[in-house]
């Protein structure tokens, strides 16, 4: 005998693993866009890519996500300026308390202040051959420039934004966009862009990245 209280009530549907359709619905985009983002293909704006990846993370989509959302490499750098013995010992106390392994690699006593080189005296590593890290910086810079045409748009966007801030060029504008793509001749009028995301989709920027990379990736011989 069937109880009357259960008649007409649908059984709850078991929730399965999230699919691309679920991600597309949550991000309010098409399934093809989700596929392009998750497989790191081109022709997707940074804003749309973020929406898709955020939706995939929220739904716990069982697959790896594109590079911009993976855990980054954390670098802890201690730049202490112990102008007096008091501050030097204070720094050593906190390092010993918070990073014992690092503290064990410290010399027992600090080198006198006037007998060491200081980072603010060394200049920018790629530009100064006398910088203690010049060789590494030059290799890293060359590797980055050689890789420019193959970097993900989201990463290029972050690099440009960080570079604008580091050089004091100010917030992005149409005038800055025109300056960034250089003075190379093009077979048609330049695209008018008003934001950084729009610049990343232009042929002008892709051509500029290729010109920069050509001197580092073997495309052109050294002069």
Q: If you had to describe this structure to a student in words, what would you say it looks like?
A:
The termini are far apart. The protein contains eleven helices and no strands. The longest helix is centred in the C-terminal third of the chain and has 15 residues, at 153-167. It has helices at 20-27, 31-38, 46-59, 85-98, 100-104, 119-122, 134-147, 153-167, 174-180, 196-199, 203-213. The chain folds into three domains: 20-69, lambda repressor-like DNA-binding domains (434 Repressor (Amino-terminal Domain)), CATH 1.10.260.40; 85-130, no CATH class; 135-213, no CATH class. It is mainly alpha-helical and 223 residues long. Mean pLDDT is 76; it is low at 1-7 and 9-14. 47% of the residues lie in helices and 0% in strands.
Brief characterization of the structure:
With 223 residues, the chain is mainly α. It folds into 3 domains: 20-69, 434 Repressor (Amino-terminal Domain) (Orthogonal Bundle); 85-130, no CATH class; 135-213, no CATH class. It contains 11 helices and no strands.
Tell me the layout of helices and strands.
Elements: H1 20-27, H2 31-38, H3 46-59, H4 85-98, H5 100-104, H6 119-122, H7 134-147, H8 153-167, H9 174-180, H10 196-199, H11 203-213
Helix pairs in contact: 1-2, 1-3, 2-3
